[in-house]
Amino acid sequence: MSVFDASLLPRSATIDAAGRLSVGGRDVGALAEEFGTPLYLYDEAELRGRCREYRAGFPGGVAYASKAFLCGAMVRLVDEEGLDLDVATGGELALALAAGFPASRIVMHGNNKSVAELRDAVRADIRHVVLDSVDELDRIEALVRSESLPSARLLVRVNPGVDAHTHEYLATGTVDSKFGFGLESGAALRVVEHIAASNVVTFDGLHAHIGSQIFRPEGFEAALQRLVALVAEIETTVGIEVGELSLGGGLGVRYLATDDPPSIARHAAGVHEQFGAALAAHGVRSRPALTTEPGRSIAGPAGLTIYRVGTVKEVPGIRTYVSVDGGISDNPRPALYGAGYETFVPTRVTADRTRIVTIAGKHCEQGDLLVRDAAVPADLAVGDLLVTPCTGAYGHAMASNYNAALRPAVVFVRDGDARLVVRRETVDDLLARDLFGRLDPV
Ligand SMILES: Cc1ncc(COP(=O)(O)O)c(C=O)c1O
């Protein structure tokens, strides 16, 4: 017997005596009827609760990493909760500004920011551009000089050369990484020296992001030790103070019942302790603000994806494929990283799950499998709903139009209200960008 572990559900979830799931005071089966499937559903209480836990844990500052999940409503929520916002492209910046987010609380990342992206960021006078290369520094200085833009405030992205103990595609802080300035090579110190001598850019601090979906503290500790050693070196050799030290994001979440990441509060307490120890060990005079930039651990556990079962096909002696109406186009993580998910039927959450099947998407790839070896009720049938929990991060954000799929709608639920915040894509949306080449006969 295997019953779905309800502790994977967001905080406002309730299950009635008949086993029907509600989130934010709304019946999930009824929401699927009202808004259609596939559907991304977000528990606003979970999103806000996680923002607040981060603010409490990191008084130095928190920037929500919008790459995890971005839409106008999320930008407004992050603003209301008092977090800063991390964007990584001109598109993310444009969406944030269009939603009314104050530029003075935006930080911009990217290992290959274009001149246009940098111009938009510097013109808007955002809080920080996180510098990732010498080429980028040249571009910023040339822009500021030639277009008389405000002087740009920079954080320097450092590649601390540490192993984050996560999937190789999610590790960004090892020596072999496309991100940031190397420590051991001396590149990080050299660029700080250059900025300190410049009259068009200013140095505000250091940044490192070692990876994502991290459960263990060792990677953060090693990164902090190395960054604080660099702070000490900057103080003594360059003679300037380091105002901020951003540890990036990376805290992991529970996709599976067996996953056991630390809570936000425990993670925050742990890195502050490590930070204090590193400052003491390196005899650092300045007290940089320790900031963080979480994405997954704010948005992930707040989101559910609701699908409808379309076919059930048994391959005798091998497996049963249960195909749903979405897949790799709304959640590429299983195909990209072999990521695992749980699944359950939201209209009978407490049912015994005695049958093992494979939940497949509807796309033209054999690898389009959402959940391998999923436990489902024995009577699962065509027309039933299936939910994958903890899909609030890097699902909507990584969704594609593969097979000309129409990307799902996004609904926020809270206190009995359901708000459509991103409408479902339409065929007209798809056709709008296609110029159809030459249609005239030749
Ligand atoms: C620079 C930077 N900051 C923050 C994040 C957010 O990471 P996570 O979603 O694991 O918290 C990422 C993710 O790729 C990132 O690249």
List keywords for this structure.
442 residues; alpha/beta; Lyase, Ornithine Decarboxylase, Chain A, domain 1; TIM Barrel; 2 domains; nine-stranded parallel beta sheet; eight-stranded mixed beta sheet; globular; binds pyridoxal-5'-phosphate
What's the topology here?
Layout lengths: L13 E2 L5 E3 L2 E2 H8 L3 E5 H14 L5 E3 L6 H9 L3 E4 L2 H9 L7 E3 L6 H9 L4 E4 L2 H14 L4 E8 L21 E2 L4 H11 L3 E7 L10 H21 L5 E3 L17 H19 L6 E3 L4 H4 L3 E13 L3 E6 L8 H5 L17 E6 L8 E8 L8 E5 L19 E6 L2 E6 L4 H6 L10
Parallel strand pairs: 4-19, 5-6, 6-7, 7-8, 8-9, 9-10, 9-11, 11-12, 12-13, 15-16
Antiparallel strand pairs: 1-2, 2-3, 4-14, 14-15, 14-18, 16-17, 19-20
This protein binds pyridoxal-5'-phosphate (PLP).
The site of pyridoxal-5'-phosphate has 17 residues, from helix 10.
Small-molecule components bound: pyridoxal-5'-phosphate
How many DSSP-defined strands? 20
CATH third-level topology of the largest domain: TIM Barrel
Given the structure, what is the number of helices?
A: 12
Strand content: 15-25%
Q: Which radius of gyration do the C-alpha atoms yield? A: 23 Å
Uncertain segments are none
- The average pLDDT score comes to 96
Estimate percent helicity. Answer: 25-40%
User: Can you identify the CATH superfamily of the largest domain?
Assistant: Alanine racemase
Total separate domains: 2
Give the CATH level 1 class of the largest domain.
Alpha Beta
Structural class estimated from helices and strands: alpha/beta
Q: Separation of termini?
A: 66 Å
Main sheet summary: 9 strands, parallel
Examine the secondary-structure arrangement and name the CATH architecture of the largest domain. Answer: Alpha-Beta Barrel
Shape: globular
